[in-house]
Design goal:
Number of strands: 15
Radius of gyration: 19 Å
Strand content: 15-25%
Structural class: alpha+beta
Order of helices and strands: HEEHEEHEEEHEEEHEEEEHE
Distance between the termini: 60 Å
Mean pLDDT: 88
Low-confidence stretches: 1-22, 24-43
Shape: globular
Strand order of the largest sheet: 1-2-9-10-8-4-7
Helix content: 10-25%
């Protein structure tokens, strides 16, 4: 009996490591999100999910409808209201993965995956994304990421000059690759998206762990070519995969306008294409502050800086247009621990 308990305890501990290690090959069939199964809210909506067995967890961007239902069921979870003077809602540092928690020299690479893009972009999403990424670096909107850092103890709330901060340089956009010689899978799985991110790293010459340590790859799929669960379970997600070129951070960015209002069309009267940059910006900022999930900055419920401020229609942090050197784009607000004298809240500019 003693030996049985010892073996059982070891198995439980091993399973715990597999689930909590962000880049582990997670094998938890009971936690995998089935494509048509309603999302279960566990303290937050959005954030950490296992959606494919054998793959690391992803950080999902909740749909507008899921966020509306979550806030109706949890009246306290309304970041559009100014927060009480407490750090209970704040993001804290989770120790990093291999010492990396944030992007200290961020670069965004956009990948238009699959021949399905050829002469087939009815909403002009490729051009909108490229213009947004070209202009967003150095903006006051993205600047809130700079209050978060790495190289500090787990549980840190305010860096106060310690560690190495996330950066917000002009010229964050590095390049775009139209990988359109052959079709992408009709309904790409997470493992296939991860493999495309590794191919992108190799294409762009980022073939070492160091060259991928502050880089994110946005894998955008064409209209009608989206992964299962898009528009009903999530609008996008970001994750990371281990590979021969190091840990690679990537975003699954489906063709956002295919989901209509559930992923931002006409949200807050910002236009039928509003979701393209609301969602694209959400994922970019989350990766900048949680490079390899979930080793960066998250709250006690597992939400990142974008999750906490998603789909706010009124009050502090409501989604709005911002003007960049490349045009005017709709965005959501981002969570700032420093807002309101350290009380925390959602902001459209920082400081």
């Amino acid at each position: 009996m003693i030996r049985y308990k010892y073996v059982l305890g070891c198995l439980v501990a091993l399973l715990g490591l597999l689930v909590t290690s962000p880049l582990a090959d997670a094998q938890e069939p009971n936690n995998a999100q089935e494509p048509n199964k309603p999302m279960v809210f566990e303290g937050t909506v959005g954030g950490w999910r296992i959606i494919e067995e054998g793959q690391p967890p992803v950080m999902i961007h909740a749909t507008a409808e899921d966020m509306k239902r979550f806030r109706e069921a949890n009246p306290h979870a309304r970041p559009g209201q100014v927060q009480a003077a407490s750090t209970a809602n704040d993001l804290t540092y989770h120790g990093g993965i291999g010492g990396i928690g944030v992007e200290t020299a961020p670069k965004v690479f956009l990948v238009l995956w699959g021949s399905q893009w050829n002469n087939n972009d009815p909403s002009g999403e490729a051009g909108i994304l490229e213009s947004f990424y070209q202009g967003v670096g150095g903006s006051s909107w993205a600047n809130s990421v700079t209050q978060y850092c790495q190289g500090v103890p787990s549980g840190t709330v305010f860096c106060n000059g310690s560690g190495a901060p996330a950066a917000n340089p002009a010229g964050i956009f590095a390049a775009v690759w139209a990988d359109n010689a052959s079709p992408a899978p009709s309904r790409p799985r997470q493992s296939q998206l991860a493999a495309e991110a590794v191919r992108a790293a190799q294409h762009f010459g980022n073939i070492t762990a160091g060259s991928n340590a502050s880089v994110q790859y946005v894998i955008a799929t064409a209209t009608g070519n989206n992964s299962r669960g898009f528009g009903t379970q999530y609008c996008a997600y970001h994750s990371a995969t281990s590979s021969a070129v190091g840990n690679v951070a990537y975003t699954n960015l489906p063709y956002i306008t295919d989901a209509g209002a559930n992923c931002g069309a006409n949200f807050n009267s910002l236009g039928p294409k509003a979701g393209i940059t609301i969602v694209g910006g959400h994922e970019m900022a989350e990766t900048m502050t949680d490079q390899f999930p979930n080793g960066g900055w998250l709250d006690s419920g597992g939400a990142e800086n974008g999750d906490k401020c998603a789909w706010i229609s009124a009050g502090q942090g409501a989604a709005a247009d911002i003007t960049l050197s490349t045009g005017t784009f709709p965005v959501q607000s981002l969570w700032s621990n420093a807002f309101n004298s350290g009380s925390g809240g959602c902001v459209l500019s920082y400081p």
